[in-house]
Write the structure tokens for this entry.
Amino acid sequence: MDLRFAGRGVRRLTSRRTRRRLLVATVLALVAGGLAASTVARAERSERAYGQVVDVPVVRRAVPAGSVVSADDVERRSLPVAAVPQGAATDPVGRTARVPLFAGEVLLEARLGGSGPGPSALLRAGQRAVVVPVDERSLTVSVGDHVDVLAPDDSAMAPSARRVARNAEVVAVDEAVVTVAVLVAEAPGVARAVLDGAVALALVGPAP
């Protein structure tokens, strides 16, 4: 066998294999580039349609007021900035819900208290927690409600009541007591009314 012809055959075979590999590599590069370009185009179309998006926490399932938010209660979603209310929470897990949280809502800082369970997690700066006794005749309230605390007005000529705390937030509810968060200046008046054994809670409605 003429070795020159054999060598030429090997070179031609090698050349064909090399061209085939180059062709496959080129096709794959074009496909990958096309996919990347398509992804970028979709992102650009989405941004033009909805505006810039932002990653925010969204409630996955209902969380009662006073409960601690767990990792299973929230998920991160990318939403258009225009659709996201201001004040979205940055790290809600482990914090206490001030009010009932509903599935699908963007979780806001204003709807969360501090870390851990208990009334202390719901106290704001400048507030004190005061325990008010209740019985079967008392108003039924829930954590997150706001109430006025009323006591007898001894200075009035006729039986009357005076307000010793305005718009106090309910931070805990037990069978025989309700814990309310009041301003520092209001705490002594509420405590005195409790010690006198005459105190009532008046539910505050939502602001108009």
Residues 119-203 form one domain. The CA atoms of residues 133 and 177 lie 4 Å apart. Residues 29-37 have pLDDT under 50 and may be disordered. The longest helix spans residues 3-50.
